[in-house]
Structures
1.
Amino acid sequence: MTLQRFLVVAFLVFVLGIGAVYAGVNRVPFRQEGAHEMHKSSLSSIIITAYSGNVSPLTMISNGKA
Amino acid sequence: MTKYKLLSWSALLVSVVLLILPRIIPICNGLMKNGSPMSCHYTYQAEFIFALLAVILASALFVLRTKEARLLTGFILLLLGIIVIVLPQPWASGICQAGGCVKTAFFSNIGGGWLALSGAGIVWLTEKKQSK
């Protein structure tokens, strides 16, 4: 095989591999229901709500409403 | 079969194994509470791309004829093997503290070490031939 032909094949293999990453073929599909017990986020839900919205966590804690 | 061919085949084999490793020994497939994937997902996406590069470089060893090109390819394979070992470390990309990905990381470290040794072997063999 000539080097030029190899480069073409290698590029095609690379593009195919990137396509596999994009399509998620290279890994086991995600479990949709429920979070893994060992891997729950360290952030509490009140802080996540505060950071995703525009509400200050201090205000929410002092009001006692989440 | 020459030693060079043997090392090239071994590098190609281990690269292919690294490529499909998360399929054989799955990493954590659950999502975090906020819906995002765990750190091991990102680590093994990166490992896949590096393994893909390793497959291409290892197959290039059968096509390349000049000693400089073989030396450089072997050296890059050595570096890729080190990257494969470094990526799951907590100070790099990291994996989960406990979960299926710890087992995957164990085997990917072995594979990375093997790839690095094959690369080093190719460099050493080519260097030896060049100095003769």
2.
Amino acid sequence: MIAFSIENLYKKMGGKQILNGINLSVEKGEILGLVGKSGAGKTVLIKIIIGFLKPDKGEIKINSKSEYPIGYSMQENAIYENLTVLQNLKYFAAINKIGWLTRRKRIRELIKSMELEEHKRKLVKNISGGTKKRVDLACALLGNPDIIVLDEPLLGLDPGLVDSILRIIKRIEKQGKTILISSHQITELRRICTRFVLLKDGILYKIKEKQLETVYR
Amino acid sequence: MIQESFAILKRNLNIILNAKLSFLIIFLGPVLLMLVAGAILQDTSLKSLEIGIYTSNQSDLTEDEFIKGFQENLYLGGSNVYQEASVSDCVDKVLRMKYHACVEIKKSQEYVPVENTNFGTLDMPSYELTTHVDYSQTASAWKIISAIQTAAETKYAEMTQERMAVVVARIDTIISQLESQRGSISSARENIRSIKTSIQDLDAKLVDTQNKINLIKQEITDIQSRLNGIDTAYPEGIAITDQIRNNLLSIQGNLSSIQENYSLNSLNFMSQLTELEDDLTEMQYNLDRVVSDWNQLKQTQLSQVSRQITYKSQSLSGSEAYDVEKLGFIDYLFPTFLMFFMVFVCLIFPTNLIIRERISNSQIRNMTSKTSGLKFGVNNFLSCILVIITQVIILLLISQFFLNADIFFRTVSMIAIIIVSVCTLSLLGMVLGYMFNKFESAVIASVSLSIIILILLPGITPTNLLPTAIAPLVKNFLPVIFENKLRTLIIFGAPIYFSALEIVSIILTSALLVALTVLLYNRSKREI
């Protein structure tokens, strides 16, 4: 069953054709690894998928009955440094119009599942990089979305924290969520992804796991 | 060491140069600032003044020579003069910024014109000019007072000159009358000289007469001795008798001579004395006329010819319940300070808030949330208002301890103006926040704009000192309107009025700012 599909997607930015006819179908429950060299347009593609940028042409079809079909975590944590963990979660839940009761329950669940209990009253600027990433992931999951898009979720984390994040991603997958993950860290991707695509010259190519090594050569 | 320093310097400059808008605002900001300040402040002479005049006797406004001339001088000095029916109306229009000053003219009650003198009627009453002016506009208040005094002094100097000319003409007449007495005096002197000569002649003749009388005495003695001889010795008395007769004839002749001399001198002397008496009578008459003229001149009250205007200037007072007399420098400065505080905070805080949000990593979540951009805009705006109003309230509460002015005299009006000011200025701050993409550009823009607005505030540069081409624009510039209202409200406790033009300006500017905020928000959304 297809979770979402991208059809004939084009995007030009700053005079450069970033996406040049992207087509992709992602199955429900799979973890798709998106790879490509820096500047290939991975972040642009992700921003289009999450609805932040509009494509010049083409469309994204999402197969979800959820009120919040897509949750995302960007390369740079999209959370407020000067708010506490709890305040961030409450704020993003509120602006996404998640009902008050649901919000309370969901935040409680996420604090537990993301192992944030001891940090929930701390200002984000005072917590570690890994914890910040977990807070950002918690924000992505606030609406209990069917599709999770993660842009470089492991960037800048030490091996211990990488393991912690990967564990959480696996846990999310087990809940039946579809995950699209963009990363340069091939070894880590191999540990969690079920399928890989390569973005090159604005076109998306399906690649096999063993071809991953050649991408960054 | 030098190499590292140079590298750091170069890095910072390159960062600035690479961000075109930052570069523009950093280098063009001071240029624009100085251009605006220069254009505004290069000529701070008083331009066209609107002045209201009130005097208790309304007919004086068209009939009194001084008041008419005073108005004329103000008009010639580039002012527009309006006659007012009551001092409260006149002062009220100053409070409402319609007039720059109100001049209340009082004519001396004790004054009585000097009529029917040899100099005609001298009508030079003394006047008391009270200038009601806005002391809080310190840069222009004294210039306005000075312009009014100059107009009054000029007219009074003219009038004094005219009156002095009349007096001088009369003095000339007196002098010519005195001059005319020279002939009489010369004539009298001639007569006196002639009398002296006559007296000298008379003296000589009296000596001669004395000699002759002595001679007569001798002759009489001789006659006596001869008569004695006749009586005793000689009978032939005829010859002696003849001799006596001859002697007697001689005496007769001598006496006749004396008589003649006396008669001639007496007549001459009398005639000269009569002439002298006539001259002296004429002189006395003329002197009497001179004395009379001088007495009349004294009656003209020379003090009235000299300058008799007293000047007073007093601060406006919008309410009888409000005592402006107790106000000090800080009170007059406070509304400008309050407005400047609001301008600064309203431009810098919303600019900061918006630009920080826009460049924040978390903005992506805001933009993709289920909350509309309009709601974000409105609530950011409300957040700014809330914070700034809180700051202003704290400032007002603390100010109470330093000010003599009763700042809460008209609380509702003051709060209304503060809210409207904060709302519109915060919108301007938000516009700047959406206009620039770099934090430093937005901050420099908001600081530069704050300084420009500060220069334009009437407490710093009164509108009537601005170049004529700029003044109407500045007068209807929102911060200027609000500062004017706050000033009249806080300092003078005056009720607030908005002119039709001011209301139009507020509505249009607010609408423009809202439209710009929406437009720039949408543009910034596309850019991200």
